[in-house]
From TrEMBL:
<protein>
    <submittedName>
        <fullName>CpaE family protein</fullName>
    </submittedName>
</protein>
<dbReference type="InterPro" id="IPR027417">
    <property type="entry name" value="P-loop_NTPase"/>
</dbReference>
Amino acid sequence: MRMLAYASDSDSRGTIDARIPEGIDLHWLAQPEELSSQENARGLVLFSRRWPDPAIERLLKLFTPRPVVLIDMTDEGHWHNVEQPAGVRLTDLNELEDQLFQLCSPQAFSPARTLALLSARNDFDGALVAIYAAWSLKKRKSGRVLILDLGLPQSDVAAYLDLQPRIGLVDLVESRDQLDRGWLDDKEIEAVPGIDVIGLRAETGLGRISAQALTSALEALESRYDHLVFNLVGMQPSALLKLVATRCEQHWLLADQKSLSLAAAMEMAHELFEQGIRPGGVNLLLAPYSREVLPALDSIEKRIPLPLRGALPWIPQALTHINAGTLLPPPADLLPLMQAVERALWLRAPDPWWRRLTHRSA
């Protein structure tokens, strides 16, 4: 992942370089003016020993809301005492490596507490991914999971699970002040034990929803549920998508092997990056992927500058189980699909060397 860095004094570069995690390609800016030619950078590291620092202030203004890690080495911690633009993470040298890992690694925040599934083209059924992601979270974690199904042109999760929706997103938002008082308790939204589903009803009424009201509702849901899975597949870039996406820890971009599908995934990624979304959380999920079709996996990884989250098999029997309402618990012939979703969801950081040594010694 390509990131930029700038320090007013060049003597600091070696100190920063020594703390850059593996997988980050750090490019130093000699002057702030060079920023305009670095459009594909995913983040910016700034090192400041003085206050005020006009060059640092200019870079902050130009780069945000894309993520910036600002290392405040001023004597009085001046940058900490100034209100910073959205996207700025203040840190010191000792925490720099951890900050960059959380910012850039797809293994951070795995499994995600809030997960968004996105695709502007609808080349794969996002409802299937949402269902099996929720099942995996419920199976391996305690607590409750909510699938908020905003997929377009239809939100199909409830229908796939033989659930008759009684409320939708608009009802949820309009009753946001009652969510912390048990308003959902008697609503028939549980598809299977531990997994609730809320979608878009036939008359969506989305035009009546304000950003403030939706934010308030999402905050209440985050308090009620242990995990939220947002199916946004089919939704074009919009104010609604932006608001929901900015609250998520991970963003899986669904694409198949068509060039058009992969290009659309990159366009969506750029939309997210411009909103300041954590770059390590914007991942490509090949859905579906077949070894018998070109381009091959290694070719896609070289071509698409996004972390590859996983590859889902196409299993025709899924259609039979959708029609029969037998997707959960996962039937034997759909286990490869379920397991592929689970591997993507539970992606883990490698064990430190000392932990691997301990395991071998034991």
